[in-house]
Design goal:
Helix 2 crosses helix 3 and helix 4 runs parallel beside helix 10. Helices cover 36% and strands 17% of the residues. The protein is of the alpha/beta class.
Length: 266
C-alpha cells in the first residue's frame, strides 16, 4: 500500500525511529509509525483528536502517546537532533501571532501554572489579549536556509526584542543576525557584539544615532517569513486548539521537524 499524503516516508521514519523511547518489557505498545502518522494527520488537518481515522489505531492512543512523549521531551529531542545540522553563518529571528480557538481558551479561570514553553509562572498559558483577540506568539530563529533552530511561545502581546533574550546564546564569532525594527535596541546590539556576532537590525525611524544597516543583507530576512508560511500549512498550528502551551509547542516542533525533512530529502 502506498503511503498517504500526510504519512512519514521511509527516509523520515529512518531518522525518527532511533530517537523514540524503547520499551523492552511489558505489554507491546501499538506500532509507533502508525501512531505517529495519526498524530501528523491531526496536525496537518486540524481536526479534533477523536476524528483521527481508524487506520491509525484508537484516537486515544494517538493523543495519550503525543502528550506522554511531550512530557518526557521526546519531541524536543527529535527536533534538536534534526536541527543540529543548521547553517549558522546567517540567522533570522521573527515572531508570528496565532489566534487561539475558543476550545483552547476555556481552561479553568485563575489557574496559575508553570509554563513548560517559556519557563515562566503565569496563568496565561502563553495566551494574551491583543487587537486580534486572544493570541499566542510563536518566536522562531532560523538559519541561512530558512530552517528552524529555536522555537518558543509567549503571550500574544509580548515584546519581540525582550522575548528574544534567551534565543541568541548560540550566535558567535562572525555570525550575522537579521531582524526587523521590533528587535532594535542598543542592549541587544551590544550583546551580539560581545558574542562576536553582528546584528543587521532595521533601525527605528526616530533614532538619533543610526547604526550601520545593510539593505542588501536584509533582503534575506524573508526566509523567516517563508518559514512561518510553511508552518501554517499545518492547521493545528495555524489555529491554536490546545489548552496547554507545552502541547501546542510540541505540535509546532513536530511541524518544524517535517519542514526539516522536506529540505533533507531534496
Amino acid at each position: 500500500m502506498s503511503p498517504r499524503r500526510y504519512e512519514l516516508s521511509d527516509f523520515e521514519w529512518s531518522i525518527i525511529e532511533p530517537l523514540l523511547p524503547n520499551k523492552p518489557r511489558g505489554v507491546p505498545r501499538s506500532d509507533d509509525r502508525m501512531v505517529l502518522n495519526g498524530i501528523y494527520w491531526r496536525l496537518r488537518t486540524g481536526s479534533p483528536w477523536a476524528e483521527i481515522p481508524e487506520r491509525y489505531g484508537p484516537s486515544t492512543t494517538c493523543y495519550n502517546r503525543f502528550v506522554r512523549w511531550a512530557k518526557i521531551g521526546v519531541w524536543d529531542r527529535i527536533f534538536e537532533a534534526v536541527s543540529r545540522a543548521y547553517d549558522g553563518d546567517l540567522q533570522m529571528i521573527d515572531s508570528s501571532s496565532i489566534r487561539v480557538h475558543q476550545h483552547g481558551a476555556n481552561g479553568k479561570k485563575g489557574s496559575e501554572q508553570t509554563s513548560s514553553a517559556t519557563g515562566d509562572v503565569a496563568g496565561s498559558r502563553c495566551m494574551g489579549r491583543s487587537r486580534g483577540g486572544l493570541t499566542t506568539k510563536i518566536h522562531a530563529l532560523v538559519d541561512a536556509n530558512g530552517l528552524p533552530i529555536l522555537l518558543k511561545l509567549t503571550a500574544g502581546q509580548a515584546h519581540d526584542g525582550r522575548s528574544a533574550a534567551d534565543m541568541l546564546d548560540g550566535l558567535g564569532e562572525g555570525q550575522i543576525l537579521l531582524a526587523d525594527r521590533g528587535y532594535d535596541s542598543d542592549a541587544l546590539r551590544k550583546r551580539l557584539e560581545r558574542q562576536g556576532a553582528w546584528g543587521n537590525i532595521k533601525p527605528m525611524p526616530g533614532r538619533v544615532n543610526v547604526p550601520f544597516f545593510s539593505r542588501y543583507l536584509y533582503r534575506y530576512r524573508n526566509l523567516v517569513e517563508c518559514f512561518f508560511n510553511k508552518l501554517k500549512h499545518f492547521r493545528a498550528v495555524a489555529t491554536r486548539y490546545e489548552k496547554h502551551d507545552a502541547n501546542y509547542l510540541a505540535l509546532v516542533k513536530l511541524a518544524a521537524i517535517r519542514i526539516w525533512f522536506r529540505f533533507m530529502s531534496r
